[in-house]
Amino acid sequence: MMSDMPGLNLAEGGRDSARLVRVWDPLVRVIHWSVLLGVLLNAVITDPEGDLHEIVGYAILGLVVLRLVWGFLGVQTARFTAFPPNPRAALAHAGEILRGDRSVHLSHNPLGALMAYNIWATLIVICISGIMMGTVRFFGVEWVEELHELAFNWLMVSVVLHVGGVVLDQRRTGVALVKAMITGIKNIPDGISTK
Amino acid sequence: MKKRIFETLWPGDADVRRAKILTAMIIVQVLCATFFLIDVVLDFDAGGHPTHLALETFVAVVLCLGIWVLMIELRALLVRMEQARQGLRVARGELAQVIDSFFDRWGLTSAERDVGLLILKGFDNENIARIRGRAVGTVRAQSASIYAKAGVDGRAQLISVFFEELLANDPPTGDARQAASL
Q: CA-CA 20 to 30 A from B146: which of A90, A127, B128, B169?
């Protein structure tokens, strides 16, 4: 290598030197933060009986469906094939973490992938049950309302787990994940291999 | 003309700008399509007029097709940008090899290599001294030694050595390649 000084290696992509990898495309990032904004609005600010609550809910549904379509049409790291829902891989990954493995997954890691699918499914359940509550056919039907609230509570549990997972993974690998979801670039530290 | 105004208003990489615009268009259209589709569903639920419903459904489907096209465009653009970056990375790697081989050939010490690299990156002696935590005098002596070993007059000539190598029409001089592959 030319130089051992940090930040001076000209040849990017050397196997185990510090490097920047573009992982999240703009669509994934905008959807992620817009959905967060929408969920915050509807959980905290809007009146559940009001029009705004409905409109924000529609927007969230549209964004989640867009993300799912992008999972088929999109670029490599956004595709479902990059992070298939695989409970066995998730368990294996949990084992690796416990054994002190510090490798970085360029898309979602297997545990994070399960959480992503879980949150998308939960959001869709919340949105659909919410829309049903406004229809003539299901207006005032009890199980629909209960489903809406139950799914919302599960979403809150999921969000806490999601944020916890991000914090833990950031500690484990040293990759600034929140920053990566803002800039799209994962900054992979020295001596960490990628999958 | 139009393009120029746009570029002054929003400077930067044209492809990055295009990707941002496409992303924004996709998001906005998806929101429109969602409201439209849900309106169709709710109208259907409330027993709306069939012709009106058919028209609304048609418009919604066309809107969705438009979004589909935009998404394909965005993907193509992002893939192209990634390929361009990869090309740049390869070029950078080759430049690094060329630099490496010249430094090898001149027999620079490891401190001189670091200083030489910083010179090529455009830092002046004061800044190099600060980065490396050495006295300016030391760096000045090291750069003088680099120029002497390379047989050049100074900074500008040192940099032109590498440009000459990269711009040369004939295949790279044998020893540069050999040194790099060693």
A: B169
